[in-house]
Write a structure and sequence with these properties.
The complex is a heterodimer of chains A (458) and B (233). Chain A has 458 residues and is α/β, with parallel strands linked by helices. Chain A is 32% helix and 21% strand. Chain A is built from 14 helices and 17 strands. A nine-stranded mixed beta sheet of chain A has the order 2-3-1-4-5-6-9-10-11. Helices cover 24% and strands 29% of the residues of chain B. Chain B has six helices and 14 strands.
């Protein structure tokens, strides 16, 4: 699409809005793009774009993948455009492109990494054709916004441009069937000792063949519908994996990836399987960009999962871990619960998962709690569970339905009154699981935990 | 006698959206001696060959709705008969739509339903409706949520499930939610409805012929119910 008068009006007004917001020290990562698209609806199609665009979409992991990928590229000398400080919908993408464009709307940087909201695909892909599109996974997410995986799959499937090369999670039977006509590569992790033959989660969004409705036969299930399977009656099956993890050494914190018959070993950064997938995803993208092992290692060196999502600290012999567990997102929470139960030692778990906006203005739709595997918290190694927030009574019911011993549960309305009931006797780790928007509360609770440990464990 | 009760859960492998499969998880805890039969999509349905006391069908995706209609269609008369015989049915979310005359897509194309109730549904995949719900079922206040792409229309004046006190009925212009006919209950209200509404759960168990229903975690579910009643106004 060519630039027209309307485009230039939108562009310069958006530039002015951005400048004004910056002067006022306000966030300029959404409004300038929103303004531009309001004035010129096909603005995204008209503005210059970098030669190479890497899009990252999917339910979970896209922010982490983008963070690691951007850092790895920068460490290798690439200058790039990203939207990591802003919104992942069309307005956020437009804002990023406006910010980086010169006064004539031209881009200097040759590569962009954009986190792309899967629900917004219809508003993005007609105007912005990713060179590569990564899809991390497709799971149930916010019921209110994302409905169900079939809905999101259909949106992506109809919107992904034919020219885009896909880099897909081959262990996700929904993802691996996206846009079948497109060129693609798959990444995946081969069977692990911890994998199962059947699903132990509440939710498994593909359990029968999408083609013939026959039962799927699972070669292994890792969690939910992540694993490898084939139809018992037709030829529907998991794909051949191009970038496959053949071994994970949790002690040495590394993994071996096989591609085209060649095996290479890389650090895993973090021992949580979701983060191993995230790092594998990044490595697959970097390989597709033609990087060598040395370049990739240089890019990943020293990186860690950002503190807003995961942190750990030893305080007088007790490890205090903060872990993002996105409320409303059942699989993200289930993954965290599974991770917590599998960690060695005795644990206390503090949970502040309520939607703070709903708590302030309405009554949260808590249906997501029943797609979430609270049952994983019913584990001998978890000695105490402390929940707080507007939905504390619902949380208590949910934990009891998961057969968690009531004596282990502390449920309170006020988040900052929880820690006084934390029992540190015999505890090796305290987990603070928090929603995306509860970081301030998380930090205050962590300080309370620190004070309690320093007082009681000298 | 609770131990004689038989509950059939239809197609739990995919009729399980919005956490609603926990309606049955909770019912198992309230009726620990009852027999629960989970019927997969490729299996013969138990209610077609023997008596059951409750048939449960949960919310599903739009494409699965069409498969379920195909599967149930040959048993339309059996279902009608079961309703007349006061067998308890609980259909939640868009499972209710299967019982209507048809489901209409945005392009006007229609999927024929079982035609058991005088209602029809319309999909609008571009606009998802989300709301809180409070309404009166007989003398019991029902609370819960709605999160759906489709709405139902038609006459449920003489067979509605709940009179709306907050939120919407079968469609935004209706103050009457769902269907209640003999012991058939069909409602868009999700929650899961049985966990959120302990008094209603008791009534459902009574409908199955249990004289003294037991409620698992009665105090805790009642506390949460009362809190939500206060919040939805």
């Amino acid at each position: 699409m060519k630039k027209n008068l309307r485009f230039y009006v939108a562009f310069y007004l958006a530039k002015l809005a951005r400048w004004t917001l910056k002067v006022l020290k306000r966030n300029a990562s959404y409004f300038p793009g929103k303004l531009a698209i309001t004035i010129c609806p096909d603005f995204l199609g008209r503005i210059d774009k970098p030669k190479t665009i890497i899009g990252v979409t999917g339910t979970n992991g896209k922010t982490t993948v983008c963070n690691i990928l951007e850092e790895a590229l920068r460490k290798n000398g690439y200058e790039l455009i990203d939207n990591h400080l802003g919104s992942n919908v069309n307005s956020g993408i437009a804002s990023s492109l406006i910010e980086e464009a010169d006064n004539r709307g031209r881009q200097k940087k040759e590569i962009a990494v954009f986190e792309l909201d899967e629900r917004s695909a219809v508003k993005i892909y007609p105007y912005l054709v990713p060179t590569y599109l990564v899809c991390t996974n497709l799971f149930r997410d916010s019921l209110r916004r994302n409905a169900h995986t079939e809905f999101i799959f259909n949106i992506l499937n109809k919107s992904i441009p034919k020219e885009t090369k896909l880099i897909l999670n081959g262990d996700d039977l929904l993802v691996s069937n996206l846009a079948k006509e497109n060129e693609r590569v798959y990444f995946g992790i081969g069977r692990l000792e911890t994998d199962e033959d059947t699903c132990h989660n509440i939710v498994q969004d593909i359990s029968i063949c999408p083609n013939c409705s026959s039962k799927l036969e699972w070669e292994f299930v890792r969690y939910n519908h992540i694993g490898r399977a084939h139809c018992s009656k037709c030829d529907f099956c998991s794909p051949q994996i191009d970038y496959e993890v053949t071994q994970i050494d949790f002690e040495q914190k590394n993994m071996t990836i096989r591609n085209n018959g060649i095996e290479e070993t890389y650090d895993i950064m973090n021992d949580n399987i979701i983060n191993i997938y995230n790092v594998l995803t990044v490595i697959s993208v970097l390989k597709e960009l033609g990087m060598t092992k040395e370049q990739i290692e240089k890019g990943l060196e020293g990186q860690k999962i950002v503190d807003t999502r995961y942190s750990e600290e030893m305080i007088n012999g007790i490890k205090v871990v903060t872990h993002l567990a996105k409320g409303l997102n059942p699989i993200a929470c289930s993954r965290v619960f599974d991770y917590v139960r599998k960690q060695p030692g005795n644990k206390a778990v503090i949970m502040i998962l309520d939607n703070l906006h709903d708590a302030a203005t309405s009554s949260e739709n808590t249906a997501w709690q029943y797609d979430t595997d609270y049952e994983f918290l019913n584990d001998d190694s978890i000695k105490q569970i402390l929940i707080a927030g507007a939905r504390y009574l619902d949380g208590l019911v949910r934990l009891e339905i998961a057969d968690v011993d009531k004596d282990k549960i502390i449920a309170k309305r006020k988040e900052l009154e929880l820690v006084q009931d934390l029992d540190l006797e015999g505890i090796d780790k305290v987990f603070i699981l928090h929603d995306l928007h509860s970081t301030e509360l998380r930090d205050r609770i962590k300080e309370q935990v620190r004070e309690k440990i320093e007082k009681e464990r000298k | 006698m609770e131990e004689e009760k038989k509950i059939e859960i239809l197609f739990p492998e995919f009729c399980n959206l919005a956490g609603d499969s926990s309606n049955m998880r909770y019912l198992r805890k309230c009726m620990p001696k009852a027999e629960f039969i989970e019927t997969s999509f490729d299996e013969e349905m138990t209610f077609t060959k023997e008596n059951v006391d409750l048939i449960y069908l949960g919310p599903m995706t739009e494409s699965r709705q069409e498969k379920v209609i195909e599967k149930l269609k040959p048993y339309t008369d059996t279902i009608k008969q079961k309703i007349k015989e006061n067998v308890t049915f609980l259909f939640t979310g868009n499972a209710l739509e299967i019982m209507g005359k048809y489901i209409e897509n945005e392009d006007g194309s229609r999927i024929e339903g079982l035609g058991i109730f005088d209602i029809y549904s319309k999909r609008d995949m571009l606009n998802r409706h989300n709301s809180l719900f409070k309404g009166l079922f007989e003398d019991i206040e029902i609370v819960g949520f709605k999160s759906q792409f489709s709405m139902s229309y038609g006459n449920n004046e003489n067979c509605y499930f709940a009179k709306v006190e907050h939120g919407i009925g079968m469609n935004p212009k209706s103050q009457l939610e769902g269907i209640y006919d003999h012991h058939f209950i069909g409602t868009y209200v999700i929650g899961p409805i049985l966990i959120l509404n302990p008094l209603f759960t008791k009534r459902v168990i009574e409908m199955m012929g249990v004289d003294t229903p037991y409620l698992a975690f009665a105090q805790e579910t009642m506390d949460a119910y009362k809190q939500r009643l206060k919040e939805i106004h």
